[in-house]
Amino acid sequence: MDVVVGSTNPVKKRAVERIVAEFDGSVTAVAVDSGVSEQPSSIEETVTGAKNRARRALEATNADYGVGLEGGVARLEQAPGVRLIMWASVTDGERIEVASGPSLRLPDSVGDRLEEGAELGPVMDERLGTENIAEAEGAAGALTSGLTSRTQALAEAVACAFGPFVTTHYESD
Question: Of 131, 132, 121, 137, which is closest to residue 71 (Cα–Cα)?
Answer without folding.
Answer: 121
